[in-house]
Task: inverse folding
């Protein structure tokens, strides 16, 4: 999600391939992201950076009492969300899609009794402004759950130098564009500054080795898709060469088929309550 027209370019782009990847990502990560999320008692949820509606479907399926108001700035993402959610007639009447700037939400104060953000703040130039605006729209006592990246945690074994070179360029590019690939570790500070109380954080981890070889293979293949979603932008910016991209892909395939491979990635989920 972007927040304003002068926001940094979205690292992954808005192609149909990327939109399909977002749906796949939501499904792969669902059990990990939604473990310990509880919107019991809430009925009016604000989802910021709803993208193609992949998380929206999960929210509405897991919490049948919710109506979700979903905001995103990008028209292509909203169109994809309408198509994706519209194909599920059992969700009719349970969501509203709005084009909106997350730093200037078109809602009255205290309009919602819950909020959800997932993989959003890493892409915005002012996470504090977004959270302050979310807080404005929430009723006192409303819970917010925020799930965010912590990209310094990534490990792939056997060591793959081109994957590592690409990953560093991936993160550097996001920082140069005004994003933050390490924002997960900062969620506690951001929530306090944004007017929330009792923020807690939980470290969630994808850790796959010989104990779950099938899931390891699936995750490594997906991670290659995630990395490649930024390749055109990275090449155009001179951050990586086509040779590095080709070698990264080769190394990912080798690790995917290595009988002793290890994949490790941790991210952060925060919960807080509106005053």
Result:
């Amino acid at each position: 999600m972007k927040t304003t027209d002068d926001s940094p370019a979205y690292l992954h782009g808005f192609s149909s391939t990327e939109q399909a990847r977002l749906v796949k990502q939501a499904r792969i990560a669902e059990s990990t992201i939604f473990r310990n999320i509880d919107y019991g008692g809430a009925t009016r949820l604000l989802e910021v950076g709803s993208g193609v509606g992949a998380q929206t479907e999960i929210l509405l399926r897991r919490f049948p009492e919710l109506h979700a108001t979903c905001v995103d700035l990008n028209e292509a993402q909203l169109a994809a969300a309408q198509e994706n959610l519209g194909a599920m007639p059992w969700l009719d009447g349970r969501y509203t899609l709005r084009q909106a700037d997350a730093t200037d939400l078109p809602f009255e104060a205290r309009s919602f009794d819950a909020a959800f953000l997932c993989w959003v703040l890493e892409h915005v130039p002012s996470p504090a402004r977004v959270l302050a605006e979310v807080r404005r729209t929430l009723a006192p006592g409303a819970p917010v759950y925020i799930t965010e990246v912590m990209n310094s945690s990534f490990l792939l074994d056997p060591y793959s130098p081109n994957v590592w070179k690409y990953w560093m360029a991936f993160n550097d590019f996001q920082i140069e564009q005004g994003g933050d690939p390490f924002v997960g570790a900062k969620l506690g500070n951001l929530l306090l500054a944004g007017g929330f109380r009792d923020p807690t954080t939980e470290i969630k981890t994808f850790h796959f080795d010989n104990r779950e070889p099938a899931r390891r293979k699936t995750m490594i293949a997906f991670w290659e898709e995630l990395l490649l979603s930024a390749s055109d932008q990275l090449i155009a910016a001179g951050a990586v060469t086509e040779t590095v991209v080709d070698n990264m892909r080769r190394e990912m395939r080798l690790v995917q088929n290595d009988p002793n491979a290890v994949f490790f990635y941790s991210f952060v989920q925060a919960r807080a309550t509106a005053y």
